[in-house]
């Protein structure tokens, strides 16, 4: 495992996904621990796990900066796009390691966070109104649809609106691409398959998330 974790990596990856999954680890006692995962798409189109790092749950953007620096030191000179959750200061950490990398916020994380600020009875309505935002043909069209979302829900759920406004710069990059590429780079869900292999179960998508992603 030590040899695998420190192996040399390729010089360039078109897409790298990073996220944390939670698994049960026995260290004296059994407890849920976060495992930080970096999963890449190679230039040949294959998936490759770059590394797995165990944490204690208190890590943030500085911890990811350490991980990304380790990946760079193992030979990765450039990443075209890095897909991640909306962790504050993470784009700055990515820029420190790879200044030209495009940071893409995971749409599913944005949706899940939006639901947290709303009552359950409104989740379906919110999902239906947000879907035209991230399926818009252009960033300009997405902004128009988002304005409609703000008009409908901004007064009731201002925190959801603020969430999307704060993430907008990192939300829109994938809208530059065709539908086939968008489906690959819009979410870190590929890491859920790693979770399933490690723990035997992944996080099942909520009905609202399934609706939004269709």
Automatic annotation (TrEMBL):
A UniProt-annotated Pfam family: Transposase_mut
Q: Output one GO BP term.
A: DNA transposition
Q: Name one GO molecular function term.
A: transposase activity
Specify whether Cell cycle is a keyword of the entry: no
Q: Which domain of life is it from?
A: Bacteria
Q: Which residues form a coiled coil?
A: none
InterPro entries, per the entry: Transposase_mutator (IPR001207)
Keywords in UniProt for this one? Answer: DNA recombination, DNA-binding, Transposable element, Transposition
Q: Does the keyword rRNA processing apply?
A: no
Instruction: Give the record's family classification.
Output: Belongs to the transposase mutator family.
Query: What job does the chain carry out?
Result: Required for the transposition of the insertion element.
What's the name of the protein? Mutator family transposase
